[in-house]
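Field reference: sequence -> structure
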Amino acid sequence: MNKYAVPNLRKAILVLKMLASAEQGISAVQIEQHLGIPRTTAFRILKTLTLDGMIDKKGSLFYAGAGLLEVGLMALRKSQLRESAVPILQGLTGQTGLTSHLAVPGGWHSLILEVCDSTEPIRVASRPGTLADLHCSATGKLFLAFCYTDRLEAFCREVRPQRRTEHTKITFEDLQRMVSDVRQCGYAVDEQEYHPHVRCMAAPVRDIRGQVVAAVGVTAPTSVFTKERMDEIVAAVAHAAAALSSKIGHSG
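Structure field:
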């Protein structure tokens, strides 16, 4: 080992790497065993990283936190996914006149990576780096349906979904129905569930293995994104998501 290296700092980095690659979360015992470090050392590292927002603790499991996601966002902006998405989002916004965005799963949230604003004077879309709720955002619904289907009960128990508007669905039974509907139709709609008078729609982006790794969505006031335009918007967003999927290796 390099004589200038700080042992516990290197261990903390290894912990972050483990958590960053573990969507299902990791327990303290698993970290101790995998890294071969004493329980007290693991506890101190986890406590410090939690206090700094780099990791989150839900029940007995630890996950990558918002702080770590924000740090990674700068690198992600230069990744193949983001670079490939920018011209597609620009084309989608030009075609629909709606603000478009790219999101990826981020723990129990949907992390907005990139946004292409429309020319509309009213801005209702979240900014890059925003962590959106899974149960009531269009991209979040997609991730619940395709990435966390078997963990829906844990999501409700640990997150305890909150009602944002009168339209927000928060019960396990309602979210079960929502997940089933999304998986059946292949896209998700936020029907004024996150913000009043705002409608969003999103379609999944799949990687070379066919797994959902991101989502492309559009957002606009309901006066602009009307129900009458739904079929048109669904087709445009689905086409954009398929184009991005193809760029990152999906051949379906």
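Note: The chain has a mean pLDDT of 88.
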